[in-house]
Write a structure and sequence with these properties.
Structural class: alpha+beta
Strand order of the largest sheet: 1-2
Order of helices and strands: HHEHE
């Protein structure tokens, strides 16, 4: 929202078109044997999510956020 409002929509480092941080995070997680899981609606009742969330040690969760939706509405 800040980049949209104050910088005329010139996006840097916030989506797949302007940064590779997303992919780098997945690769780093896998390199260190950190489990990675995509979550969506109803995740809080998903047995696989609950197991990973409650397990000792780190875990990574991928959450889809619509990039066109303002931050205040996420």
């Amino acid at each position: 929202m800040t980049q949209s409002n104050y910088f005329g929509g010139r996006y840097v480092g916030c989506d797949t078109a302007t940064a590779s941080a997303f992919l780098s995070g997945i690769i780093c997680s896998l390199a260190y044997s950190i489990p990675v899981q995509r979550i969506g609606p109803g995740y809080h009742e998903n047995p696989a999510f609950l197991a990973a969330f409650n397990a000792p040690g780190p875990a990574a969760f991928l959450v889809h956020i619509d990039p066109s939706r303002p931050t205040s509405q996420r």
